[in-house]
Input
Amino acid sequence: MPETEGDDDVLRVEHVSKRFGAVTALRDINLHLRRGEVLGLLGDNGAGKSTLMKIIAGFQNPDEGRIVVKGEQVSFRDVDHARSLGIDCVYQDLALVNELDVVQNMFLKRELVSRPIPLLARRVMRERTREALERIGINIPRLDVPVARLSGGQRQAIAVARTVTSEADVILLDEPLAAMGAKEGAMILDLVQQLREAGEVSIIMIAHNYVHVLQSCDRVNLIQGGEITFDKPTADTSVEELNEIVVEEYRRARRAAQAG
Ligand SMILES: Nc1ncnc2c1ncn2[C@@H]1O[C@H](COP(=O)(O)OP(=O)(O)OP(=O)(O)O)[C@@H](O)[C@H]1O
Output
């Protein structure tokens, strides 16, 4: 059963559905996120996780249903509109601009300006970029190279650093460990832990690894075939329980396919 929704919800998704032609990617989704909470979103490939994130981030519109941010129903025009309302996203496919350097990407669309000394703004942005990357613990020796020349893990780190320094209220992390080695992945999980302890932002994190979700999140939702089928505090569930639900659903779908 879904957790009780409350006044301290920073975000609510209500009865959201999304179709792509014959494919129903999301079916009557209800999800809520409390202030300061880290919610893990688990689900198999094609379950609908990214579609749901894209709708919450203003990248796509739902066919039905509504999004409520801090008590107000909203209809996002685009990603920038969602961002202006405090929702920021790190996508699986990142959204960095390849030709721009690390500092320019960190401050994309929110550049500091200082007239009459533009160099000063550049110096401050550079300093803040350095600090943000240090906070994650990732060393990128040169900040003035186009990000196209960096590794997948470094690019991922920049995208995460940009989001956590953006003063967003809600951060969406779509598989933040996807391009990471073990060490960098641990750094990102540490960062999520720091943010969770500080309690200033709310996070939805898509992940494939149940252990990571149980360690790093307050609550877990499971999405299967475009529907939320499970919603529990991580303290009240286990890898075994999650595995059992996923395997049971797989068996049910296989029986249905064989029967029909
Ligand atoms: N732009 C699109 N056009 C057509 N179908 C789409 C589109 N985006 C998603 N889908 C379909 O919607 C369903 C859900 O996709 P989605 O990417 O949300 O799943 P996911 O849970 O994020 O999967 P993964 O873990 O593989 O990234 C899939 O069947 C997918 O093929």
